[in-house]
Amino acid sequence: MRFVIVTGISGAGKSTALKFLEDAQYFCVDNLPILLLEKFASMTLSMNSEEIRNVALGVDVRSGQQLGDLEEILKKMRKQGYQYEILFLDASDEVLIKRYKESRRNHPLAPDGRVDEGIRLERRRLEFLRNQADYIINTSRMLTRELRKEIVRIFVDNQDFRSLVVSVVSFGFKYGIPSDADLVFDVRFLPNPYYIDELRHLTGEDQAVFDYVMGASAATEFADKLEDMVKFLIPHYMNEGKNSLVIGIGCTGGKHRSVTLARELFHRLASDADYGLRIEHRDLQKDTLRKKNQE
Predict the structure, then answer these.
(1) Which positions make up the binding site?
(2) Where along the chain do its domains lie?
(3) Which of these, 156, 183, 158, lies nearest to 169 by C-alpha position?
(4) Is 6 helix (H, G, I), strand (E, B) or coil?
(5) CA–CA separation, 182 and 178 (whole Å)
(6) According to the model, what pLDDT value does residue 26 have?
(7) Residue 222, Cβ neighbours under 10 Å: how many?
């Protein structure tokens, strides 16, 4: 039986992760009083039931003052031989604030105040859980289906946890640099398909544009050097415990050159990646949407 404690920053996806585990036939309990945790673990881990094979327990700041007792309770459980795993869901402050605004919810630690202050306080209170976590999943750039895939991979298929998720993000400088980018590369020095009539309306996802951009010797040389540097950096980031790396590749509008180079880097990294890898074209359709709004 697997006993998983699901926790994390409010708004990062804890409830969603619990729902996915429930779909995977985990017996799920959310917000159990902390003082009952040891008794609950003892009862479930000693059960030999066909109905309850795995257990997931949601814990967060709603536990209030009892949260202060959790660290000692977990230490005691570990000494007594209880086997448990901690899954910690996290996201950047900017993404969390945006999610709260979109859902029009109040932060549990700042019901009448600013969301950012609630997040800051919550991070401090949950720091000990993050430090002890077996799995940290940063959902800042994850789609719901991507989170589900990661949950299933770890807790159903029992595959090795990829502690680092690398996001390759194409963007347009005229729309701003991604605020969460760790590495930013400017490919505006490459030949621009925008000035080729038959390519202007296409994007870097079209083969004609891809071939045009990568046909330049500077593009292949840049891709070689970028691949070499990124593959050098990733193991060092992993050793430092980094769980999310966002690589931004930008051109003027985020439609042609940046998309092409993002695709090329993603393909090169995917060939032997032992970490999570995803690609996103942030501004691919923005020019089209802007023209429609102007009409």
Answers:
(1) 8-15, 60-63
(2) 2-155, 165-294
(3) 183
(4) strand
(5) 9
(6) 92
(7) 20
Instruction: Identify the residue whose tokens are 């997931």.
Output: 56
Per residue in 185-237, pLDDT (tens digit) is: 999 999 999 999 999 999 999 999 999 999 999 999 999 999 999 999 999 99
| Encoded tokens for 115 | 């969301």
Cβ-contact 24, 87 below 8 angstroms? no
What is the C-alpha separation between 285 and 75, in angstroms, rounded?
51
Known binding positions for GTP: 60-63
**Topology at the third CATH level for domain 2-155:** Rossmann fold (3.40.50)
Instruction: Report strand pairing: 54-58 vs 2-8.
Output: parallel
Report the candidate in 108, 64, 118, 60 with the shortest Cα–Cα distance to residue 86: 60
Q: Binding site residues for ATP, as ranges?
A: 8-15
Q: Write down the residue that tokens 């708004």 correspond to.
A: 11
Residue 148 and residue 62: Cα distance in Å, rounded? Answer: 24
